[in-house]
Structures are given as structure tokens and as C-alpha cells.
Amino acid sequence: MRIPLPKVRRFLNAPTLALISAITFSFTLALSATHAQAADSPTLKIGTATSPQIEALKVAAREAKEQGLDVKIIEFTDWNTPNAALANKDIDVNYFQHIPFLENAKKQGGYNFVAIAPGTIMKIGLYSKKIKRFDELKNGATVAIANDPVNGGRGLLLLQRAGLIKLTPGIDYRATTLDIIDNPKHLKIVQLEASQLARSLDDVDLAQGYPSFIKLAGTTDPNSALLFDGLENKNYAIQWVVRPDSVSDPRIRKFIAIYQHSPAVRAALDKAFGNLYAVAW
């Protein structure tokens, strides 16, 4: 038997009714706020440098859209603008740099950034369209390496591993040409923008190369390096980098989780890089 509402009210005192009304009102407000927040949630803007990496990011963005998160991937053609854009709040997060590069950028640019999660580790190699073995390099041959302090050092370390130069003992990725203590072939080492190294292969005898840029340029087979560095050093893993106030941004955390766990994203990375990359998470 249903009890008419007026009779129910007689069993409840005024304070109880007031409490019920307050709870109902609060729940309604919370529900409305949740819907409004979902509807008004700003687009997550992710900056990256031109690379085949972008296809995997687009795959993750499509999956994020299906889960209610709107994402815009913004592509930059150099390695300086993504950090400037992050500092200026033109983007919310960038994904293109490893820890050594980030630390150098913070020092030189005065940036206050935080790396919150690792991404992929990319191999680099020494490439040539003119020789098949290092002992074929002629005296005075021209070798191109990256011109930024970190990646240039990484290139010099690779030249040392190839037996072409010797560096100051114990030096790490911060090596510069001033750390060369032996250069038996009198190699002429030129420094170029890292993204342009792939296009230098017709003009130099040997070049430090990034498989991703080589693939974009189509100048040679990305797998054809005479020597690769390994994938075991997680210092070289690309990082998700944010401003300190965005460390706990749930949109960024959600997108990173999608990127790291999506089979479709992994398939896109495999298609782009084959065995030239590894995941660092």
C-alpha cells in the first residue's frame, strides 16, 4: 500500500526534511557542475617536433576523443619552439625531448618545466652514402653532427665508439669538439641542426642521423647505419614535459595512459620505426 506524501511528511520532523532537501539540492548542483565541466573542458594542446612519432600521437588523440577528451596535436619544425610555446602557455604539454636535452634547455632558457612520464627511446646512428665501412673514410673527410650541446655530445660519443676519435676520458653526453684529444684521420666535424642532418648525407662523408628524420627525408634506409647506439639508456627516452602547475592535470595524465596502453598506438610506432625504438615505461 502506498502512503500519501503528506502522511510521510508527518513521520519526519522539520530538521530531517531540511537535511534531505539540502542533500538533494547539493547532489543536483554537483551533477550539473560535472556536466558543465565535461562540456566546457578545454582542448588539450600537445606540442611535438616534426617526426613519424606524430602518427602515433594522432592515433592516441582519436582514442582520447572517443573517451570524451578533445586533443589537438601541434607540430613544430624545430627543437626550440616547443619549449617556448610551453612556457608561453600556447600548449599544455610537449613531447619531443629527452632528459639531457630538457636539462640543457632549462639551463639556457630559464624554463621551469617538469618531466612527468617517459615515452619512447629512439636509436641514433652514423650514416653514409659514400662508404660502407669506417676504414674507408679518407683523411680529412667531412663528418656532420648535431649542433645542440646534448645531441652533439651524443654524436661525438658515437664517433668515439666507431674508433674515429678519442675524447677526454670520462666525458659524457656533454662532450664538445673541444673534448676531442685524438683525431687520427683529421676529420672535419661540422655541426648542423639535428633535424637537417638527414639531408646532409649527399654533401658529407658521414653524418650522425636520427632514423625518424631520415625516414621523413627519404635520403637513405633508416636501418642502414654503420653503427647504432643502444636502446638501454633511458636517459634518452622522450619525455612528457609540463609546467609545474600542470603536473596533476587529469587531461594530460589520461592522454599519457592512453598513449602508453593502446595497442593501436603501439602498432603505429611499430609501423613507423620497426626495431629502431623501444618503450621506456
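the 2nd protein, sequnce then structure:
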Amino acid sequence: MTKPKVVVFDLYDTLLHDIKFDFNSVLLYLHEEILSKDIDKFEFLNYAATYWKELYDSRDKDNIEVAFDEELLDFKNKYGFREEFPMEEILLNCALKMNSVELFEDTIFILEYLNKLGIPVYLLSNAIFKKEVMKKIINRYDLEKYFENIHFSADYKLRKPHKDLFKVIFEDIKKDNDSIENSQIYFIGDNFEADVKGAANFGFTPIFINRSNNKYINDKGFIEIEALSDLMQIII
């Protein structure tokens, strides 16, 4: 098996445990604290649950990402803000309310380990928030320093497993190592369709982190681990 020259990680449920996802709490926050005071709550929630939900639901079919900043701007144009709140502040608050996360216990350990080996590390994650917001999220855990670069689907309007999103990270990696081959890039993720099969279809070496020990999903025989620390036995 080809040894890695670069390792790329997914974020949610790979490096960060996504404990809870709650989109409704974001909508309630916007209605109660941000949007004009005279906006009917049920009319607003109904609008969000129809027009925008349809866009979100179609993402897994066409792998086109919906960026939340566009949704927020639409809400602002349609309903108005009660004050001129900075968009960056609102977006961060929405991101924090939407996802409750925590570090997996071996996340820092494996990132430090790769750093000691001198293996460059990148991040490529599906997320409806763009890089500037996501940087603030991951830096709550002091993670950005471990990565050569970080990429999020909202910045490119594409979602994994779309090949063009893997092409983005590949071209970024080749800026520092023009001779690198696809198979020398290991991609580690928890989503079998988006991360594992998506990476494999692009020619990367995928590693499926299967913490739930699902014995039936990996029907292609890809490399499989149950914890990030298991990477030590694969990389050395």
C-alpha cells in the first residue's frame, strides 16, 4: 500500500464529534433577536421551511452546497434587521447554535503525531458556513495551526462527493508538491458516500473511520479504522 505524503481530514464526526444539530434554534434566534420586531414568527418559519428547506434537501441529490450567508442575506432583504448587526457576528452565532460539538479524545494526539512525522495535513469539509466563520469554530479548539490549509464546501458551492471539490484540495496540495500522486493523499472521513467513495473516485486513498462499527456499509473493502489513533498503525 502506498504510504501517505499528505493527509486530508473531514471535520464533523471525524475530528469533531457532532453531538447535536438543531437548525430550528437558529431560526428562533434570528426571529427573537435579529429580524425586525413586527415579523410574524409562523410566517417566517414557514418561509424558511419551504423555500430554503427545498434547497437544503436537494443538496444530497446534486451535490450543490447552499451557503448560509446567502440565506441570511435573503432574510435581511425580506424581513429587515432590527439593528445593523455585523453579519460576521450573526453568522458565527448561528453556527454555534446550529451544531453542538466537542473534540474526539484522540484528535489532538493524531494531529500532533502527523506533525512530528512531517506529514502535511489539510482539511476538507462539507459545511454551510464559509471559511471565515469555520475558522472561528475550529479555533475554539485551537485546530487551525495543524493544517496547511482548510477548505469548506460553502466557499465553492459544491459538496463532497462532487469531484470538483476534491480537485480543489488536490490543486492546493500540488502547489507545495507538484510531483505528488493522487494515491499518496490519504483522505479520512466518517461519511461513506461523501468521504470514502468520493475520495476513492478521485483517486485518493480513502480511510473510513467507522466508530459505530457498522459491519455492512463498507462493501468495497476500503481501509477502515474505529478511532483516529488507529491511523498510527496504517501510516508508519
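The chain has two domains: 6-19+100-235, 21-99. Residues 21-99 form one domain.
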